[in-house]
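Page header: ASSEMBLY MODEL / two components / 1444 residues total.
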Amino acid sequence: MDFENRRKASLILADGTVFEGKSFGAEGKVLGEIVFTTAMTGYQETLTDPSYCGQIITQTFPLIGNYGVNKIDPESQGSAVFGYIVREYCEEPSNFRCEGNLNDYIKNLGIVGIYDIDTRKLTRIIRETGVMNGAIVCGDFDRDALLDEIRNYREEPPVPKVSVKEKQIFKAENPKYNVVLIDYGYKFNIRRELLNRGCNVTVVPHNTTADEIKAFNPDGIMLSNGPGDPQQNPDAIKTLKELIPAQIPTFGICLGHQLLAIANGASTMKMKYGHRGGNQPVKDLAHDRTYITAQNHGYAVVGETLSEAVGEVSHINNNDGTCEGIRYKNAPAFTVQFHPEACGGPHDTSYLFDEFIELMNGNK
Amino acid sequence: MPLREDIKKVLVIGSGPIVIGQAAEFDYAGTQACRALKQEGLEVVLINSNPATIMTDKHMADKIYIEPLTLDVVKRVIEIEKPDSVVSNLGGQTALTLSMQLAESGFLAEHGVKLLGSNPETIHKAEDRQAFKDTMEEIGQPCIPSKVVENIDDAMAFAEEIGYPVIVRPAFTLGGTGGGIAETCEELHEIATNGLRLSPITQILVEKCISGWKEIEFEVIRDRKNNVITVCSMENFDPVGVHTGDSIVVAPAVTLADKEYQMLRTAALDIIQALKVEGGCNCQFALKPDSFEYAVIEVNPRVSRSSALASKATGYPIAKVAAKIAVGYTLDEIVNQVTGKTYAAFEPALDYLVVKFPKWPFDKFVYAKKTLGTQMKATGEIMAIAPSFEAGMIKAVRSIELSMDTLTKREFTALTDEEVEKKLFDVDVDRSFCVFEALKRGISIDRIHEITKIDKWFISKLNNLAKLEKWLSEGELTKEKYETAKKYCYLDSTIERLSGQKIADKPFSRKLAVYKMVDTCAAEFSAETPYFYNDFDEENEAAEFIEQHPSDKKKVIVFGSGPIRIGQGIEFDYCSVHCVWTLKEEGCEAIICNNNPETVSTDFDTGTRLYFDPLTKEDVEALIATEKPYGCVVQFGGQTAIKLTKHLTEMGVRILGTQAADIDAAEDRELFDELLEKCGIPRPKGETVFTEEEALKAANELGYPVLLRPSYVLGGQNMIIAHGDADVSEYMKIITSHELENPVLIDKYMMGTEVEVDAICDGEDFVIPGIMEHVERAGIHSGDSISMYPSRNLTEHIKKVIIDYTEKLSKALHVIGLVNIQYVVYNHEVYVIEVNPRSSRTVPYISKVTGVPMVDLATKIILGKKLKDMGYKSGLYRDADYVAVKVPVFSFEKLHDVDNQLGPEMKSTGECLGIARTFGDALYKGLVAAGYKFCDPRSGANPNSPDGTYGVLISVRDSDKNDVIEIASRFEDLGFKIYATGGTASVLNRNMIAANHVYRIHEDQEPNVITLLESGEISYVISTSETGRKPSLDSVRMRRKAVERSIVCLTAIDTANALLDCLEAKRNISEIELVDITKI
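Prediction written out in full:
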């Protein structure tokens, strides 16, 4: 560790709080919504999770970068993350798969980083006041001007930025099913889980129409995770509404879960500081079992707003009781708020992909 | 569904005496469990032979049996109490094994008793080697491939199959003699041939060698609904090969990418589900550092040392949750006490790193092998919570009580670079310090990794400390340097020493630590349970917490006793916890500061607030600044807390209880002598010396034998009895080489009756709950002696003198609270040996037996109450209806090369208690509980001996030869065959005792003592020698052999007599009343 040549960086929150730290990764200035994740492993997966598009991520675990980075673990091409806040990053990582260190990695991805700040203090502020915008800036800055900028900052709808522009086709080794994966910013492991279960996967852009999707004649539709406020995606919601009568087996994750709920008349809300991490307990109400899940969302479906005729809440969060899953009655569809594809996080709910396969089987 | 309807009365089995490998963590787990069960309205019956625990305290259960943990006794307790269920998984291996035996024998079914926690099938699957392997195979979990073979060809074939390197472990050779690691088939041929030859049954185990793999642990919990969670992951600093109890451990695991982490986490969940554990379970894995290959090393279907550590590291109370699960609750129903908002069905998220550092007994056992391997050697441990590994290590070394504040070990600084590199190859207790020294010498991280196989992550972090220390030592101590060092939790005094500059001279101000909260959730939720650690950020969550919870109550800080080690064990935790309870009852806020993760005191709901930090001057200063207490209590935390008194007084903090100056008067030789003179109380004659010459002169003037010790000692550390000039010279050479600044004390050694007294004093009145008399005469450390209450052989006059002296001493020392005084009665005169103005080892058991709540009274007194207002009169309290005999327990089989001859230096790790109506019964119970075997030739032939005889081997020093005649004759009368070495044999034969002569080891002739000890015929060894300690000595080797063969080895004539009393009385445990101490 070089104790002497360290560059100054600052973190400024919309409420005026300033943290003095040091710069790593890309230099410069970045604005975004500051969120925190409590995951203790999987930082590379976090950095490449498109659901974090446009956000500045805080890691509550203080030691990040311990095992370096590699080319295999990313969950998407590049990164949509704007800024990265850690207590300490590891300069000399150690792992047999390590191909580089975190500093170089985020520098190459253009992510502005700050370290050596009290991330617990920051987390407690966010917990108490809710997520807010902020900025990381290297070197000196004009506090008032920057605060104005932060307060006026509005993020553009993020889904178009992270979704594929053209359809992509992935073939399974022994294909049994054809699945259309609507990409709102999907994590690679959703695709892998499907391919491993014998699904050919056609990844289509977020704005693909219902007719285009039906034209693929899919055995199932996978609605991916993705970033931002679900209400900012009217076209995607419209498409899902139109797909309901087609009665195609559908499995939704995260943003996909929220969009299908909206398409079915439910409403969503912005959470105070969301769920981000790998330790969220979720209860499967039908089976009275609790699973530990990976999560990353700042919005949630308001379970009570879902008409009983349309579907029922199948999973809830043990901690705050929020809706974590819906089983639909009006279509062969089920969705979850959490991430059964894990990466990073626990794999305890990967069986849901099996249930999706069964659903497709039953429909054949 | 919550509580099971069919459970009303539960038997909890404890873990027994503290031994290496099974220590205070089970008091913590057991206490949590008992409380959780009582909260549910269940009737709790407890059996545990360990009297020093909180668990066996009257508040903890409805019925408490401090009785030997043998199958027969547990069965009898079940017959008497008729519980409807037994909890199997909260009392360590002892309880698990007993539960298994109770279940397998059909006893439980017969009596309609349910086994809760782990069922017999689970225990069998986890404990039986083959069943475990089969189960793992069924669920696709890899084990370490191994095979038992009986010839060289099979060994070679198996090695080809699994690949080299392989480990060869010969069957039935102790300490792994004849085994080794083979890298090639040539090496295997040689090692296996040798191993087969050495194994008495010509059998070896060939196992895939995975040394150098990472060792990772998961603590897992499952309930009956099959909900499963992992509480914590842990990674060992030392790769596979070093017992996890002897390894530096960090939590959470740090060098695993999410893919590896989730792979092992999923494996752990699969394992606990396959074993159907209901409660906590520990899974240990070996992970190959250069691939995803792993193997399951071990699974413990119970709470363990690791679960205690995981509980303290995360704030998740595993034992409490396990107890609730055992009686029917599920994880989604049990509230997370820390947040009060969430449930037990979640996985803690940490926003700090925890470092566990073992405490080994080698500062005491200078001749013992310090190497580490698969046999655990640590007696205790400490935990440090910090924002980084570096800071965690710095906090850890200053908690471990080796007088260190950095990782620099003084003796390594004198080595050459080559010597340091060579030393890196030693896998021993100093390895982390050696790595640090190597880094300071510029030996590369790669090279260190190549030699030690320690993950480079850890090495490079230690290298950061080396770089930081170098940076500090160069040039001006700037604010930046100072603050960087503080972030790594260096003490100001350390920074000043390393930089050679004073912080007070600098233009910046010093930083005092602030506090962060341990909340199980990395600040995601606001927490309600106050558990803090210090670091050097700006926010002080403890101060904030105190502000948000205003209270008019007096705030009192209780300092704990640090790591469990020989001489300062669990009893001080008992005292600290009791003090806290009483403080709370008395309307105070009781704040605990301690660093031992195994104990009840560091359970976050024991005190009003818990600070998990080192117990040094600066750490304490920060705590005082934050808490601004009314006062501090130091007398219950052993020497660790006592040492803080001076600093606290200097800081202007009120000491509740005996004051610093008086503590000093008891510990400082000159002041103490003055005090004794003033009181007119005699002590054995003695002198203070600094050099070998002075020592020899003084010893000869006093007359041998003499007692030598450094001033300021604990647990008789470095204390010996010298019988001649050679002993004095050897001793002085060792002491002076340690560059100790304190002088050495030489006393005339009086071989009289040793008597011990604990008293409670309020400045006016004093109460002695009981006088304890030792079975062994003075010369054996009080902690290693069998102690009897009430005293047995003291005349009324002597008792009066003792009471009188106790009063005079406590008044002269202005004792407020507890005092412990040791006396020796020699030729009908009473002499004072030692006065400790603090709680002592004997307080828990005397409190339990006499019914005098000593710590509670002492705590009330330090708050200003008077004994007479609480209904106590000055003097000796009335004798209890029961006799109690405390028997020490040792861990010699785990510490190679430690001489098991008892002496003034304490060696025991724990103790058992026998309680009965008569002395004989109590002694017998105590000995049974401590594991003494009772062999009686009158009841039939010896199954282990070729000709069915029972033998006793006697080899004693000249001064014991007269006394041993009667002992030998008593053994002979019982039908034992007597064997003795040269001198002893001729004395016995001359006195008409038929002693068979056996040759000493070095005489190298048959019949030799070693052959005899291996024959299986010998039941008891009585061995004393004038000199001991050195492992190469003949007598030491003989005693070690007895330990290895699990033969009862007595090293004091008095102990042998006591044992004979029991043998002659032909006592049987099934005929002795079992005592529920809640009724005393």
